[in-house]
């Protein structure tokens, strides 16, 4: 055999060996990756909440924490970090890189935050991996006790007839209560003017004192006053009647169309979280909130359990961004929160 042929054979053998080694290394890496993903989580999972203990998103997070811990076989720790209507926590979640930090975030954080405040350093559309909804709730379109009319349609007519002399209250500029009312105004020929308060308890007080004549309120706050007859309800803003306010009609029953709106809390992860980890967390979340015990616990804290896929949450995020984003742009609404 000539030297040239020997070198060619030796070179070919070396190339084959190198190729086999590369394939073996790649296969081993894939096995290691799969094992790592299968074993996730490898340490405690932190759920960040941008509101104080006892607030609705906090109660939702705590309702799922212990059951999630049992399924994932790791501690699930709820951390309260109030500030900027939850946007401070949303920013922290978006920038987390440990694969073990997620957020219990509300509509505003995951949809319109950047539209309201362009100075925010996170982008709801790009910086999060949707995990799944925890719960939803309608708002109650409530009117002061001085409203005339027995039916929802008659009470709505009373509001309409107030013209621009009427006032509606909200817990602040850019809140869902504010944007939702502007959406309803555009669909129901209402011209009442905005009066912002510091929170929903103050809005209730304003309705009771007839400082304002109209407001969108969480069912848990509105129902006791509706039952006592001190304020009245036109209806709930969900497409159908809600178990959170089962005796109330919907605003569709008063012929208000195109203004369906729900508040919600959802689990969201950083966009950098591995897809397999997101999928595993979603499966655990769906199992938890589908259980009767957790579903009832959520109902007692003002949430209707909504098990679903990451894609279901992503679609809701897009729909809410489009619906409320249109209001923000049309009305030129801005917030520093």
TrEMBL record:
Keywords: Receptor
Position of the signal peptide: none
Entry annotated with the keyword Heme: no
Family under the similarity heading: Belongs to the UPF0065 (bug) family.
Protein name: Tripartite tricarboxylate transporter substrate binding protein
Lineage of the organism: Bacteria, Pseudomonadati, Pseudomonadota, Betaproteobacteria, Burkholderiales
């Amino acid at each position: 055999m000539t030297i040239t042929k020997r070198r060619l054979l030796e070179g070919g053998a070396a190339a084959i060996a190198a190729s086999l080694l590369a394939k073996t290394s790649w296969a081993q890496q894939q096995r290691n990756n799969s094992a790592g993903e299968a074993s996730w989580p490898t340490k405690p999972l932190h759920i960040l909440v941008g509101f104080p203990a006892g607030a609705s998103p906090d109660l939702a997070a705590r309702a799922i924490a212990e059951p999630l811990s049992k399924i994932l076989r790791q501690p699930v720790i709820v951390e309260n970090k109030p500030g900027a209507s939850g946007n401070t926590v949303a920013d922290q979640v978006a920038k987390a890189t440990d694969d073990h930090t997620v957020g219990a975030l509300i509509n505003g954080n995951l949809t319109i935050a950047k539209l309201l405040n362009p100075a925010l350093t996170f982008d709801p559309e790009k910086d999060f991996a949707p995990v799944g909804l925890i719960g939803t709730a309608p708002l109650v379109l409530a009117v002061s006790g001085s409203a005339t009319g027995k039916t929802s349609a008659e009470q709505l007519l009373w509001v309409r007839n107030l013209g621009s002399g009427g006032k509606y209250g909200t817990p602040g500029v850019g809140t869902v209560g504010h944007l939702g009312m502007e959406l309803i105004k555009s669909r129901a020929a209402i011209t009442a003017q905005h009066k912002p308060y510091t929170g929903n308890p103050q809005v209730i007080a304003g309705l009771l004192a007839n400082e304002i004549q109209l407001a969108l309120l969480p069912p848990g706050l509105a129902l006791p006053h509706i039952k006592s007859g001190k304020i009245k309800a036109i209806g709930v803003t969900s497409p159908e009647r809600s178990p959170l306010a089962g005796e109330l009609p919907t605003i569709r029953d008063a012929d208000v169309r195109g203004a369906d709106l729900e508040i919600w809390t959802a689990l969201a992860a950083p966009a950098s979280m591995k897809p397999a980890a997101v999928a595993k967390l979603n499966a655990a979340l769906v199992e938890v909130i589908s259980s009767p015990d957790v579903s009832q616990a959520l109902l007692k804290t003002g949430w209707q359990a909504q098990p679903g896929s990451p894609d279901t949450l992503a679609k809701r995020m897009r729909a809410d961004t489009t619906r409320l984003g249109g209001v923000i742009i049309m009305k030129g609404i801005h917030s520093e929160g």
